[in-house]
């Protein structure tokens, strides 16, 4: 069923500009600009300026763009033009475009980038930003405009609605803060991945891998519900994990290190997480739980509110971590693509069996580092609402 809402965007030169939004379930189907005379006297027109303002549209995010739901073409560009802003639009051409764009930035410049995308694109971008000497004057400021599937980052920054995020940006209502970043070094000792949402093994990683299957691709966020039934019925969910420094050791069905409270708009598995703080929360559920008990705990994330404490429970580990550490994985391999070795880093998917330093290695180690809010030559900043 399609629902329609109208959101006010900005007043300008005697005009009140709004957007009519149509949504079908979790999918946006239309963004249309509306203009009417301003009810009160409007503020005088101001030149909207930001250094190197770029709209980066990852056009395959969410369920992809149509002429109706192309927010860049239908809303962002016409409004920036009317505000006489200087900006550039970059539309992704292929699956490497976003990372390549990150790699081509001029290290002597600062940028503000509106990410019309989901989380994976932001992750690809950060991992694409080249090495370089930190420059005191170069910053990258990121604003997520939630057009992906889960949109964990945008939801955690209280930017659930793409039109409201753009409106708040135009009206100068957002806070800009240093962006906490983390690095995972895989067992081969060479592959290093920057992340800022979640590192997961077990159920969550398996779910993200399964949801990539072609049969689920055309669905929005609903595809995760479909795929989770398959995993709960058919997967072993016994991750043998030790974190020496944290005194954590056991067999876990679900194991996630999270920086953000929301993994989706209404799903808050880690309510104590704060995307502006440089700390991770370990959330893990024991393999001793039966599937019904496990599902109850996973689904409890839909009832949590930001700031809640999780109910103490011998089968749940919930711990704040604010220093680097090692994850040791001691699973016995069963088959060539054993899902017990599946890892998810902000929606990017790996099977650790392909990242061993030698084929006989039995214990696989992932090193996790908290890195400063800097990548290559840039200070990394994020815009959001507290
Ligand atoms: N033209 C294109 N052709 C092929 N792949 C593309 C193209 N444009 C973007 N992509 C890829 O599509 C993916 C979009 O991921 P993104 O995270 O933005 O959305 P999502 O997966 O729907 O959302 P979320 O990660 O929030 O669940 C990225 O991997 C990106 O590189």
Automatic annotation (TrEMBL):
Q: Which Pfam families match?
A: DAGK_cat
Q: Which GO terms describe its biological process?
A: sphingosine biosynthetic process
What GO molecular functions are on record for this protein?
Answer: lipid kinase activity
Q: DAGKc domain location, by residue?
A: 48-190
One of the record's GO cellular component terms: cytoplasm
Name under which the protein is recorded: DAGKc domain-containing protein
Q: What's the source species for this entry? A: Huiozyma naganishii (strain ATCC MYA-139 / BCRC 22969 / CBS 8797 / KCTC 17520 / NBRC 10181 / NCYC 3082 / Yp74L-3) (Yeast)
Whichever gene encodes this chain, its name is KNAG0C06610
């Amino acid at each position: 069923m399609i629902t329609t809402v109208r959101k006010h965007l900005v007043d300008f030169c005697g005009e009140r500009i709004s957007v009519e939004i149509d949504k079908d379930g979790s999918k946006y189907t239309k963004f249309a600009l509306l203009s009417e005379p301003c009810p009160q006297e409007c503020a005088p027109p101001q030149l909207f300026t930001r250094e190197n303002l770029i709209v980066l549209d990852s056009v395959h995010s969410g369920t992809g763009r149509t002429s109706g739901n192309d927010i860049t073409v239908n809303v962002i560009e016409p409004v920036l033009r009317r505000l006489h802003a200087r900006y550039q639009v970059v539309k992704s051409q292929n699956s490497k475009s976003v990372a390549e764009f990150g790699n081509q930035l001029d290290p002597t410049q600062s940028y503000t980038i509106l990410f019309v995308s989901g989380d994976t694109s932001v992750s690809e971008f950060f991992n694409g930003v080249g090495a370089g000497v930190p420059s005191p004057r170069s910053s990258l400021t990121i604003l997520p405009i939630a057009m992906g599937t889960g949109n964990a980052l945008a939801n955690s920054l209280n930017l659930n609605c793409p039109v409201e995020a753009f409106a708040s940006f135009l009206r100068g209502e957002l806070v800009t803060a240093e962006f906490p970043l983390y690095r995972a070094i895989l067992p081969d000792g060479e592959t290093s991945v920057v992340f800022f949402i979640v590192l997961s093994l077990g159920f969550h990683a398996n779910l993200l891998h399964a949801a990539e299957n072609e049969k689920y691709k055309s669905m929005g966020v609903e595809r995760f519900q479909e795929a989770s039934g398959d995993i709960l019925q058919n997967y072993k969910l016994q991750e043998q994990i030790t974190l020496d420094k944290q005194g954590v050791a056991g067999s876990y069905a679900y194991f996630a290190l999270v920086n953000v409270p929301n993994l989706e708009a209404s799903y808050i598995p880690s309510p104590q997480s704060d995307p502006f703080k440089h700390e991770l929360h370990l959330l893990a559920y024991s393999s001793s739980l039966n599937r019904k008990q496990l599902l109850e705990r996973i689904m409890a994330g839909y009832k949590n509110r930001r700031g809640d404490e999780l109910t103490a429970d011998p089968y749940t580990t919930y711990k704040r971590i604010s220093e680097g550490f090692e994850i040791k994985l001691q699973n016995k391999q069963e088959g060539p693509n054993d899902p017990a070795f599946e890892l998810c880093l902000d929606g990017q998917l790996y099977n650790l069996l392909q990242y061993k330093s030698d084929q006989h290695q039995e214990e696989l180690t992932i090193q996790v580092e908290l890195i400063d809010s800097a990548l290559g030559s840039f200070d990394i900043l994020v815009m959001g609402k507290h």
